[in-house]
Structures are given as structure tokens and as C-alpha cells.
């Protein structure tokens, strides 16, 4: 018997839902994750005598059985370590294996094919002194139990899942305001290129790479090339945010004074009514997308873009980052790590944890060593409060704006005084370079302290990578290498 708790949006008291048996466990899985997992292995921690649901981890089922031995150990360690940081070691674990049949395959055959993987998950958790109370396979609308030997309740040919929206769990989730956002495959499709054969976008990325990549590699971080690229990228991103905000899915946006007018090349594409992601794609030209994708490979530029995380800027920013992720066509898949991470961050910051986990998971698939995505993914999965990171970003923004204001005042000391009467009291002094350095040091110390309090710890090598400029990889070099020649470098 398992107990799941949700905070009702109509009451401050928690609502307790008691689940009995494999059928109700299988029905509860989409509500625990926020989507229907597909091709996934999910581990859910249970706590206490009554089996209260705790943390959970999800990863795609390895395609090759040769990869099965390493996956269970990694998943179990992640679940136990995450629970340990919250002071709650799991008392038991529930395992879910979700995979649709291949062509010509039945759901029962899927269950049998995955049985060795399920058994390895059970033995791995048992080696950590954490029993697996139930292991279920969910496939083609049926569920199977790997643990229950009673054919009267768990027959070998499986049992059908409850009809969508008819269970007690579905009713309780609707009352608590919990939504299921479709399947994992559908959510990932919103963040992946619609087609790999996009010659126009690929050509724009190739052209932008020849200009922007050398500038990003300009050192130090304050170099002229990197600074100009940062200003260009952020300026374009601000204009696009205005454009996206002016087109929330209704009629085609019209230019307005002070706003961001659409380029002529896009006007014709908006004559036909479109909605959702299709409209967002139409708002973005290949050249604009290429400029932003390449510019965001600079860490400082990406960090400043992450400041659009709340308020009226959050929704258009999330749509923009998703649209950029869909433009990372081959061979620029690795470049999607930056916009995917920004999309995951904004989704998490605005309370959409399921979408955040999906975006951050794809970012790590694009670049497993992308430190920002790794830290956010860990924090999101552990249920930490994103406000700690929001505070750091606000402080960095305030420090930067104060430094820019002081620099502007120092550059033009003969600027006439404003017409408004001067306030009483001593005039504020301009920020000196030493004060700016101290302010930045304090901001970095605050960020590190907040990260430590949130449990976001990194290794020494990871910290070194985080402080070094991250040069984007140039796919042009990879395409021109000779067949059979070994690839060198990162």
C-alpha cells in the first residue's frame, strides 16, 4: 500500500491518496511525472511504513542489452544520493519499465524481453539494502508485474490499464491541479528539429559560424570580439522577445511604434493562420536563429539571457528558446545544449517541472558535459526551490547594471545636469573599477554559497570547466576531415 500526497489548490491541508495494488500504481505513474513516459525506466522511492512516495529518477531504456549492466547501478545511486541529501533514505523502491512494442511484437513479448533488465534493477537495489516492492512493465495499454507470482491478480498476458480520467488518482490529481502533458515523445518533439533536411537553416548556421565562432574564441572574456558578439546576440534576443510577446498565438502581429517589426521575408509566411510552435517557427528567420544559436555558445551571454526567467519576459523567452532548439539541425545538434538549458531553466523557474526535466534531459543528451544543464537537472529532480538561483541572477544583473551606469557617468563627466532638482544630501559617487571588482566577487561568493546550500556541488574539474571560456565546436572542421582519420581534440 502506497501513499501519495498532493497539495490541493483549494485547501492548505495535504490530500492523501492511498494506492492499492499494481493497477493503481501503473495508473499513478503519469501523474507523478507529469507526462506519460515512453521508452523509459523509472525508479520511485518509498518512505515509511505506509510507503509515502518520494524522489524519482527516469532515463531512457538502453537500446542494447550490453548497456543494461551499468544503468541500474547509476539509477539506484542517483535516487539514493538525492534522497540522502534531503535526509530521507528510501525504505523501498518501485520500478516501472515503459516501452511500446516494436513492429510485429506484442506487449507480452516486450515484458519478457525486458525481464533480465528488470531483474538486474531488483538485484542492484537489493545490494543497497533497499527492497523493490514492485516492478511493473507497461506496454500497449497493458501492465505486467515482475514481482507478483499470483496469476489470479497478475496474469502472464497482462491486464489493461484504467481508462484515462476514470480512476481515483485521476480525479484527485485534477482536484489538486496536476496536469498530464501528453507523452514524453510529444514533449521531446517540441524541442527537436522538425526535419533534419533543412538546407536553409544549415546554410545560415554555417555562415554564422565562420563569423561568430572566432569572436567567441577571442580571449580574455572581455575581449573586443566576444564583447561585440555578446551585445549583438542579446540585442537581437531582446527584439525577438518583443516580437514573440506581440504574437501570443492570435492574429498576425502588426508593427507598432517602438516595437519589433517583422522582417519582410517573414510577412508572407504569417498570412496563413498558424498556432503554437508553428507560429513561433514562422516568427524566426534562419539568419536570426543562427546568430542566436552561435552567440549563446558564449557562457556569459547565456548567463545574461537566463535573467529572462520571470514576469512578462518568461513566456516569450520560453517560446524563443524552444524555437531555437528546433533549429539546431545536423551537424549542429550539440549547439542545442544552450537553448535547451535555457528552456529548462525558464520552465523550472515558472513552476513547470515536467517540461523542465524533459528539456534539461535533452540538453544533456546533446552535450553530457554541459555543466549548467547538469546542475539544473540535479536541482530540479531533487525538488529544490529555484528561487535560490533566481536570487543569484538578480544580483548579477543588478551588479552589472550598476557597473554600466558608473562607466557611463565616468565616460561623460561634462554631461549637463538634468532639469529636475537635485535631491538633498550627498551625491552618490561613481562606481570605481575596484568597487566593481569587489561587487562581482561578492556576487560570485553569494552564488557559490547559494549553490552549496542548494546541494549543487561540482568536482574540481567541473569547477575549472565552469570558469574557463567554452569554445563552441565547429562542425565545418568535422565535415572536411578525411575518411578513416582519427578525430582529435574535444
- Write down the overall mean pLDDT: 77
Largest sheet descriptor: 6 strands, mixed
Number of helices: 20
Uncertain regions spanning at least 5 consecutive residues: 1-14, 250-274, 417-437, 449-472, 474-490
The beta-strand count equals: 8
Fill in the keyword field for this structure:
490 residues; alpha+beta; six-stranded mixed β-sheet; two-stranded antiparallel ribbon; 20 helices; disordered N terminus; disordered C terminus
Brief overview, please?
The chain is α+β, with helices and mostly antiparallel strands.
What does this structure look like?
This protein starts with a strand and ends in a 10-residue tail after the last helix. A hairpin with a 4-residue loop joins strand 3 and strand 4. The protein has 490 residues and is an alpha+beta fold. The protein is built from 20 helices and 8 strands. The chain has helices spanning 21-33, 70-85, 107-113, 115-127, 168-176, 184-189, 199-216, 224-245, 264-267, 276-282, 286-295, 299-305, 314-325, 337-349, 353-366, 371-381, 387-411, 433-453, 460-467, 475-480; strands at 2-7, 14-19, 40-47, 52-60, 92-98, 132-139, 142-145, 159-160. The longest helix has 25 residues, at 387-411. The model is unreliable at 1-14, 250-274, 417-437, 449-472 and 474-490 (pLDDT under 50). The strands form 2 sheets. It has a 6-stranded mixed sheet with strand order 4-3-5-6-7-8, sandwiched between helices. It has a two-stranded antiparallel sheet with strand order 1-2. 49% of the residues lie in helices and 10% in strands.
Amino acid at each position: 500500500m502506497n501513499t501519495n500526497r498532493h497539495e490541493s489548490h483549494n485547501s492548505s491541508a495535504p490530500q492523501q491518496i492511498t494506492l492499492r495494488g499494481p493497477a493503481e500504481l501503473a495508473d499513478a505513474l503519469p501523474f507523478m511525472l507529469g507526462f506519460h513516459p515512453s521508452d523509459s525506466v523509472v525508479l520511485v522511492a518509498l518512505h515509511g511504513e505506509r510507503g509515502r512516495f518520494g524522489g524519482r529518477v527516469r532515463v531512457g531504456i538502453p537500446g542494447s542489452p550490453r548497456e543494461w549492466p551499468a544503468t541500474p547501478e547509476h539509477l539506484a545511486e542517483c535516487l539514493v544520493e538525492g534522497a540522502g541529501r534531503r535526509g530521507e533514505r528510501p525504505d523501498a523502491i518501485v520500478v516501472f519499465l515503459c516501452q511500446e512494442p516494436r513492429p510485429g511484437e506484442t506487449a507480452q513479448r516486450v515484458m519478457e524481453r525486458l525481464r533480465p533488465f528488470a531483474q538486474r534493477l531488483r538485484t542492484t537495489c537489493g545490494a543497497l539494502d533497499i527492497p523493490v516492492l514492485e516492478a511493473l512493465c507497461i506496454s500497449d495499454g497493458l501492465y505486467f508485474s515482475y514481482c507478483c507470482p499470483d496469476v489470479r491478480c497478475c496474469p502472464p498476458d497482462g491486464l489493461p490499464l484504467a481508462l484515462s480520467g476514470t480512476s481515483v488518482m485521476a480525479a484527485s490529481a485534477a482536484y489538486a491541479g496536476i496536469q498530464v502533458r501528453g507523452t514524453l515523445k510529444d514533449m521531446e518533439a517540441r524541442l527537436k528539429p522538425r526535419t533534419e533536411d533543412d538546407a536553409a537553416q544549415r546554410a545560415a548556421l554555417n555562415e554564422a559560424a565562420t563569423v561568430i565562432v572566432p569572436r567567441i574564441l577571442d580571449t580574455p572574456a572581455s575581449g573586443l570580439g566576444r564583447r561585440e558578439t555578446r551585445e549583438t546576440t542579446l540585442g537581437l534576443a531582446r527584439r525577438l522577445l518583443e516580437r514573440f510577446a506581440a504574437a501570443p498565438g492570435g492574429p498576425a502581429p502588426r508593427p507598432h511604434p517602438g516595437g519589433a517589426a517583422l522582417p519582410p521575408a517573414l510577412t508572407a509566411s504569417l498570412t496563413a493562420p498558424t498556432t503554437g510552435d508553428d507560429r513561433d517557427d514562422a516568427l524566426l528567420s534562419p539568419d536570426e536563429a543562427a546568430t542566436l544559436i552561435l552567440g549563446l555558445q558564449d557562457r556569459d551571454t547565456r548567463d545574461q539571457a537566463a535573467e529572462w526567467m520571470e514576469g512578462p519576459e518568461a513566456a516569450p523567452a520560453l517560446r524563443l528558446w524552444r524555437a531555437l532548439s528546433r533549429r539546431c539541425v545536423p551537424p549542429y545538434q550539440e549547439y542545442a545544449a544552450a537553448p535547451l538549458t535555457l528552456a529548462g531553466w525558464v520552465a523550472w523557474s515558472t513552476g513547470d517541472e515536467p517540461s523542465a526535466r524533459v528539456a534539461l534531459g535533452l540538453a544533456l543528451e546533446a552535450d553530457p558535459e554541459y555543466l549548467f544543464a547538469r546542475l539544473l537537472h540535479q536541482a530540479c529532480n531533487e525538488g529544490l526551490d529555484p528561487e535560490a538561483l533566481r536570487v543569484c541572477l538578480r544580483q548579477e544583473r543588478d551588479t552589472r547594471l550598476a557597473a554600466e551606469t558608473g562607466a557611463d557617468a565616468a565616460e561623460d563627466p561634462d554631461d549637463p545636469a538634468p532639469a529636475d532638482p537635485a535631491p538633498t544630501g550627498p551625491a552618490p559617487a561613481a562606481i570605481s573599477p575596484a568597487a566593481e571588482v569587489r561587487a562581482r566577487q561578492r556576487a560570485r561568493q553569494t552564488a557559490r554559497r547559494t549553490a552549496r546550500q542548494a546541494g549543487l556541488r561540482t568536482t574540481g574539474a567541473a569547477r575549472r570547466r565552469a570558469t574557463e571560456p567554452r569554445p563552441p565546436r565547429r562542425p565545418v572542421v568535422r565535415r572536411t576531415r578525411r575518411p578513416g582519420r582519427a578525430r582529435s581534440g574535444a
